[in-house]
C-alpha cells in the first residue's frame, strides 16, 4: 500500500478513432514530435468527454462527428523523474467518414499538425510501440462492436454533432 497521500495529477485526454470505407484510420503528428497517433486532445475542466471529442474532431478535421461510445481506455502512469503527470486516454469511436469527407478530413489540420490516413499494416512503420498497441486494440474493439457508452453524472452523454 502506498504511503503517499498527495493526490495524483492526472490529465484526461480523448483520442478519436475515425475510419474511412477503405479500412484506413486517421492519424496525426505534430511537426515537433516523432511518431503518429490518433488525433485528439485534453478534455477541458468544464467539458465532458463527448464534448471534447466533438471539439477535437472539428479542430482536427473540420468534420462534425457523433460521439457516444468509448472503445478503449488507456492509462499512462506519472513519471516522477520527469515531473510528468499521469494520463488517462479515452479512445472514442468517431465513426466512418463518407467518401467526400476523406479529403476534407486531412485538408486543414490545426497549425503545426499533419494528418494522414493509414492502413493497419502501416502502424509499425509510422507509430511508436505504445501508440501502435493502443491503436491496434482500439481497432480490434471497434471491429468487434465492443463499446462503453459515455456517461455524464450517471446518464448517457448526449451524442453531439
TrEMBL record:
Keywords: Hydrolase, Magnesium
GO molecular function term, any single one: hydrolase activity
SUPFAM superfamilies linked: Nudix (SSF55811)
Protease listed as a keyword: no
Segments forming domain Nudix hydrolase: 14-100
Cofactor(s), names only, from the UniProt record: Mg(2+)
Protein name: Nudix hydrolase domain-containing protein
Originating species: Streptomyces longispororuber
Amino acid at each position: 500500500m502506498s504511503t503517499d497521500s498527495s493526490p495524483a495529477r492526472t490529465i484526461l485526454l480523448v483520442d478519436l478513432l475515425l475510419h474511412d470505407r477503405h479500412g484506413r484510420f486517421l492519424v496525426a503528428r505534430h511537426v515537433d514530435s516523432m511518431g503518429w497517433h490518433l488525433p485528439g486532445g485534453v478534455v477541458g475542466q468544464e467539458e465532458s468527454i463527448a464534448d471534447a471529442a466533438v471539439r477535437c474532431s472539428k479542430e482536427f478535421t473540420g468534420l462534425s462527428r457523433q460521439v457516444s461510445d468509448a472503445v478503449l481506455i488507456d492509462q499512462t502512469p506519472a513519471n516522477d523523474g520527469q515531473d510528468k503527470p499521469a494520463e488517462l486516454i479515452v479512445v472514442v469511436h468517431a465513426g466512418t467518414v463518407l467518401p467526400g469527407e476523406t479529403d476534407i478530413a486531412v485538408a486543414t489540420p490545426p497549425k503545426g499538425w499533419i494528418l494522414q490516413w493509414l492502413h493497419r499494416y502501416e502502424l509499425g512503420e509510422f507509430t511508436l510501440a505504445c501508440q501502435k498497441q493502443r491503436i491496434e486494440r482500439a481497432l480490434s474493439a471497434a471491429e468487434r462492436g465492443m463499446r462503453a457508452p459515455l456517461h455524464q453524472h450517471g446518464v448517457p452523454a448526449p451524442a453531439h454533432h
